[in-house]
Each structure stands twice: as C-alpha cells, then as structure tokens.
Amino acid sequence: MKRFNSYLDERACDLVSMKQIKAFEKFVDNMFKRFNIDFNFTKHFGDRMGDDRNDPCISMKELADFIKKIYKRQGKSIKGVAGAEAVIKDMQSDLNIPVAVKYDQKNDEFDVVMKTIMRKKNFHTPDKVIKYESYIAEAFNTKIKWTKMDSRSASSGGNIQKYRGKIDNQNIEMSYTIASTAPEVNIVFTVDGTMKITAKGNQMKIFGAVINHITSWIKEHPEINLVNFSSHKEDPNDNSRSKLYSRLVKRYASKMGFKVEEIDIDVMVLYILKRK
C-alpha cells in the first residue's frame, strides 16, 4: 500500500478513481485520528476531481497538499463549524471543498463529509468559508497592534527606537538601533524578555509579525541602506525552523529591494541586508 507522502510526489493529472479516493481517505483518517476527526469523501467528490471544468485539472498531489494545510491547524477551524456546512478554500490553488460537519457523540469524533471539489478563484457561497494558506503566506499576513515607546540615545551615539506588541499573551519588543554616522540599523526582537522564540505559542506567527514590522519601518526610513537582523535558535541542531525564517527574510528582502547575506553561528542566524 502507498504511503501518504507518495501522493505528494505525483505530478500527473490523470482521472482519479473512487478506489484511489477511498484509499486516500484511509490515510487521511489515520492522520486526523489524534484530533478525533473522521473524513468521508463522497462519490460526487471523486467525480469532480476529474471534471474538465477545473482548469487546470486537480491532481492528487494538490489534494494531498491541501490536506496537509488542514492538518497543520489540527482541524480546529473545521471543528468550529460542527452542526453546519462550510467551504474550505486553498488560497494558493483556488480549490474549494464544500463540507458538512457534525459531532458524533457516540464515538466522540467530528464527521466531515467532503461533498465535492472544484477549482474556482472567486467562489461565492452563503456558507462559512474557512481559508487555508501556506505557512509562509500565513506568517506574512500576521498583523498586530504595535505601541511605540520613547526613543533614546545609544551609547554609540546613535538613536534607539522601541516598539511593543502582543500575540497570544506573549509580549514582543522590537528594538531599532540607528547608527549616527551611517545609513545603518541593527534590529533585535525579544519574546517575553528573551531573544529565543520558545515552543510556547506560534513561532511562525510571531516571526511573521516581526518581519511585517520591519517592512513597515524600512518604508518609513528610506535612507537606511544596511540592516543587521539576528534570530536566535531554540535548538541549534534543528535547522527546519531556521530554514523557514530564512525563506521569510529572503522574501521580505526581495520585495524591499535588498540582497541578503546569511551567517549561521549555531545559536543564532545573522542576516545582513544590503540595499541593491
């Protein structure tokens, strides 16, 4: 029997049989068992997978990618519409899946009927819409309220500006130290007083809020040509989170007209951004 990850490797967009859909359903149910969620892919869902009105057609890889996005949220948004119908939407692929959700008290689980699927960019429905985005996109969409603190002089002769915000009861502080003789800024952020983003809360959400604040600040200070920005690692041996941070920084830099030099020194990653 195929592993779930094998669906992510499929590139062809062939006709999908109901046998394939039901086999895929078993994998999905095993994935979501820990969250007490059971999926049922209907025959109509299988038929619409191969409908030529989908342009381009829908592949099993796209469906698997979509399911992974739902899994990352632990199915919480779907549980929130129990007793009603909704449409779950993938913002990257424009896939729309109308679902019916009900709570099965006897088995203590949430039954999710995947009624159909279609690719449509501007899909309108009177039902609740649950949007799913990529990890990177979700982080970049993080917006919080920031409070500017009193500015003060730095020991080096420059100027320090500080801002504070909050995400999920975690206090974030941004510190911008502007050099006195050069168009340069050194940026440091802390979470609850530490430079490490701990496992508590949503690390990517916090990092996204920080990057968005830097973006806004740089726009207000076009004279800045060099940005020094560091990010501490929670686990020096875990490079997966650092890679995600790097993708965020590089995407930001490209949008703002900077090139990036990245220096990994085990406990932290230093980013040096130079305006092109």
Give a written overview of the molecule:
By secondary structure, the protein is α+β, with helices and mostly antiparallel strands. It has 2 domains: 4-133, no CATH class; 147-275, Aminopeptidase. It is built from 8 helices and 14 strands. The chain has helices at residues 4-8, 18-32, 43-49, 60-72, 76-79, 135-140, 203-220, 240-256, and strands spanning 37-41, 84-90, 95-104, 109-114, 118-119, 128-132, 147-148, 152-153, 159-167, 170-178, 184-191, 226-232, 258-264, 268-275. The strands form 2 sheets. Strands 7, 8, 9, 10, 11, 12, 13 and 14 form an 8-stranded mixed sheet that branches. Strand 13 (258-264) and strand 14 form a beta hairpin. Helix 7 packs parallel to helix 8 (240-256). It is elongated. The N and C termini lie far apart (51 Å). The mean pLDDT is 83.
What is the helix content?
A: 25-40%
- Radius of gyration (Å): 23 Å
Broad shape: elongated
**Biggest sheet: strands, sense, closure?**
8 strands, mixed
The helix/strand order is HHEHHHEEEEEHEEEEEHEHEE
Structural class: alpha+beta
Q: CA-to-CA gap between the ends?
A: 51 Å
* SS summary, helix count: 8
Beta strand count: 14
The stretches of 5 or more residues where confidence is low (pLDDT under 50) are none
Mean pLDDT: 83
Roughly what fraction of the amino acids lie in strands? 25-35%
The total tally of domains equals 2
